[in-house]
Amino acid sequence: MKFKSTDAKYLDRRKQLSEKYGPRELWSMIDHWPLYCGIGNLSRFLAIADLVHQSLGVPGHIAEFGCWRGANLLFMAKLLRIYDPLGSKTIHGFDSFEGLQTFAPQDGQAEGTRGQYKGSFEELTDMISLQELEEEITIHKGWIDDTLPALLQVQEELSFSLVYVDVDLFAPTKTILENCHARLSTGGFVVFDEWNYQNFPGESVAVREFLEAHRGEYVGHHVKHARQPSMYLRKI
Known about the structure:
It is built from nine helices and seven strands, in the order ααααβαβαβαβαβαββ. By secondary structure, it is an alpha/beta fold. It has two domains: 1-36, no CATH class; 39-235, Rossmann fold (3-Layer(aba) Sandwich). The protein has a seven-stranded mixed beta sheet, with helices on both faces.
């Protein structure tokens, strides 16, 4: 896999520095984040910022599927505060907070990741409260197969401008695409974190099946200057 040896060397050097300088006070590290943040991680968030900025002119809210610890969720909410402070866009976050659990045959070797990416609902809601982002963010806790159709049934007016898919696996990706297709505004984005990613093949399979069923309705785009997200679709 590309970058595997580079990442291993970087993580080893990072570990050595951590041992050399010892623990740091949390908020001091956060306030000086460019000092500690790796280029790969920085490029990821710059790419996401660019996608959010591009989607501002598209009507509808933002949805993230697979929040994990909530870094991307809060990042996008803060971007809305900066880019569109008087606008009505909000963010819907979907996660079971139980990690990866249910695997389909299309997911292949990803079954070895069972239980990974388990988030903390309490910590996430505390961080949202700390930064007073309650009006910008709504969390839908539970399995996406249940929470997404239920939300769309109750809120028939709900439309999206950007849908961020970070669920890794075939079944939830398929559920997201099938349910959000009709609610995604023309010109809107569907962003994929693990498309064409060897360790999680199910996401790519679900995307391929969706595009075969909706030929000519979306255009795929490479995400420049970042490993992840790896692709986005624009509805035409």
